[in-house]
Amino acid sequence: MAESDAAPTISKKCGPYISSVTSHGINLVIRGLVLFFIGVFLALVLNLLQIQRNVTLFPPDVITSIFSSAWWVPPCCGTASAVIGLLYPCMDRHLGEPHKFKREWSSVMRCVAVFVGINHASAKVDFANNIQLSLTLAALSIGLWWTFDRSRSGFGLGIGIAFLATLVSQLLVYNGVYQYTSPDFLYVRSWLPCIFFAGGITVGNIGRQLAMYECKVIAEKSHQD
Q: Residue 171 to residues 76, 118, 162, 178, 193: CA-CA distances in angstroms?
């Protein structure tokens, strides 16, 4: 009789644990997919601005979409967006520094708008030389981090993302995949790291907000149980 009573007790203890792990895995996949499609959308819109101003040039045979973008650009940017968006909250937990600065969707949307504005400025605004443009975009990108992030992990990841993304861009241009008009930083434009830095901060804030929403839902479910 005692053994029969112990079995249901064990299953009750294991049930919520397995359920929480499963739900966390599903939420992780959902967050990754949301971030992927956000990255695809931003890539199509922002790349269109660069192409319209002849900042970036692709070979004619790879232009296949109505947005005049090479077919591989949206999925690559979507994958990078998913990785970055999932990495930011993971890094916050690892460092024990939960991000609490301006944690609401309205702030995230303003961050996205500022990032689009920075990218728009790089393509539309005319400066006397590329150094002035690069310094202006660098100041705007750091201002974006200070306004919407202010975390050490966010700044460090932003710098790392800018370095790696610029290196990949250099290799792609070197191998003739696409090219920049008037390159002044080896094979690319000198302001490109600023765009990557601002993009990393923006996608990181989106990923943090999605992770916080997941934590709220799990907390509400556990409270109801």
A: 15, 24, 14, 10, 14
Q: Return the amino acid letter for 126.
A: D
- Distance of alpha carbon 38 from alpha carbon 11, whole angstroms: 40
Q: Hey, where are the domains in the chain? A: 22-54+70-224
Decide: helix, strand or coil at residue 180.
strand
Q: How confident is the model at residue 111 (pLDDT cuts 50, 70, 90)?
A: very high
Cα separation of 8 and 209, whole Å? Answer: 38
> Using CA atoms, how far apart are residues 138 and 100, in angstroms rounded to an integer?
25
Q: List all residues 6 or more positions away from 36 whose beta carbon is below 8 Å from its beta carbon.
A: 78, 79, 81, 82
Residue 150, SS3 per DSSP? coil
Cβ-in-10-Å burial (0-12, 13-18, 19+) of 116 comes to: middle
For 50-65, how does the pLDDT look when each residue is reduced to its tens digit (9 = 90+)? 665 555 555 554 444 4
| Alpha-helix runs per DSSP H in 53-151 | 73-95, 105-124, 130-148
178 and 56 Cβ atoms separated by less than 8 Å: yes
